[in-house]
């Protein structure tokens, strides 16, 4: 499903080599986290 | 605990990593019992991006896994809408701190148990849910972080949870 | 000023303190553990400094690579300029970092010269030490 090389977020060129992300899509920040610090055994 | 691996599995752009070699001194501080081939640790963040069907683009920020990097949490978590918490079924107690931190931050989350093919099943799903004291609505899935489809399914479970529980409840 | 150091890291940090306006110096592992630190810091402060310095140099390495659109970069040094003064971070090529903090009057060129030469001396010592395990006897 996930392609390693394709880029699917559209950007609009505003001239002079500047690009802005397309804000029509929902951009969502997600944390991927896990055991925070391996606990030392008591 | 699979965070770096998961982001690497799903990211449609080349992922960002900030890994350093674990030193011998670190092996004394960090209890790595049962973790055989963990020779590096994330010291800042991992980063990747995946576009989901329906027009949602997830920017994934992987947090560092050692207690000494806990001061970074607020800055990394800022602006996040949810968290996918990877849990090792063999070391459930090691996840209590991060679950507490995610809840304290007010982030809706889903729990993904990292499956190891050779790990015996000690617990039923009900036992795992009870051991982690999860709310009934919190999604709990199994996930092989090395497998893109398995990892994407875990993220989809989280996204569905975010959609179902929008706006976020304030405690 | 003297340094409180694990093992013999005092020889690394004390010359850094000789640079005028240097407040503190730390020797750390690249994965964020403190190996030695100077008297201006308490142990908990030094531990916090080691962790965040590891983060900074790790993030900077990735940032340099990202701008160059590649996977790897080697940081020569990181300079942080703030209202408190300057932090200079220089990684070694054997898994450690020297970090120094000077007040706003510090001369960065002098500090950089001193820290880089200490890092070079650390490198010479690491080469001379031979394979890991030769010096440390772990209990059976």
Automatic annotation (TrEMBL), chain C:
Residues 10-102 form the Roadblock/LAMTOR2 domain. It comes from the Bacteria. Signal peptide: none annotated. SUPFAM superfamilies: Roadblock/LC7 domain. InterPro entries: Mycobact_SerProt_Inhib_Rv3364c, Roadblock/LAMTOR2_dom. Gene3D superfamilies: Dynein light chain 2a, cytoplasmic (3.30.450.30). This is Roadblock/LC7 domain-containing protein. It comes from Streptomyces tuirus.
């Amino acid at each position: 499903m996930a392609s390693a090389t394709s880029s699917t977020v559209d950007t609009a060129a505003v001239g002079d080599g500047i690009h802005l992300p397309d804000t029509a899509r929902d951009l969502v920040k997600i944390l991927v986290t896990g055991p925070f610090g391996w606990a030392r055994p008591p | 605990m699979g965070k770096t691996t998961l982001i690497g599995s799903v990211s449609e752009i080349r992922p960002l990593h900030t890994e350093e070699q674990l030193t011998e001194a670190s092996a004394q501080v960090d209890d790595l019992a049962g973790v055989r081939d963990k020779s590096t640790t994330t010291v800042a963040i991992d980063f990747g991006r995946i576009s989901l069907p329906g027009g949602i683009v997830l920017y994934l920020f992987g947090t560092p896994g050692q207690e000494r990097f806990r001061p970074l949490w607020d800055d990394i978590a800022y602006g996040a809408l949810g968290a996918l918490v990877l849990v090792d079924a063999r070391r459930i107690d090691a996840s209590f701190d991060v679950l507490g931190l995610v809840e304290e931050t007010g982030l809706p989350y889903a729990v993904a148990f990292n499956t190891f093919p050779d790990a015996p099943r000690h617990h039923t799903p009900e036992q795992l849910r009870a051991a982690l004291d999860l709310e009934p609505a919190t999604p709990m899935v199994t996930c092989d972080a090395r497998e893109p489809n398995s990892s994407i399914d875990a993220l989809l479970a989280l996204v569905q949870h975010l959609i179902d529980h929008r706006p976020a409840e304030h405690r | 000023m003297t340094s409180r150091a694990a093992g013999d890291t005092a020889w690394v940090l004390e010359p850094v303190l000789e640079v005028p306006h240097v407040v503190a110096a730390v020797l750390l592992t690249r994965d964020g553990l403190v190996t030695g630190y100077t008297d201006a810091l308490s142990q908990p402060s030094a531990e916090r400094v080691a962790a965040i310095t590891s983060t900074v140099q790790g993030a900077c390495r990735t940032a340099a690579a990202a701008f160059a659109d590649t996977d790897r970069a080697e940081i020569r040094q990181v300079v942080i300029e703030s209202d408190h003064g300057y932090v200079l971070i220089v990684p070694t090529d054997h898994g450690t970092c020297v970090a120094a903090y000077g007040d706003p009057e510090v001369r960065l060129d002098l500090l950089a010269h001193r820290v880089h030469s200490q890092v070079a001396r650390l490198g010479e010592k690491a080469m001379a030490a031979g394979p890991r395990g030769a010096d440390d006897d772990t209990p059976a």
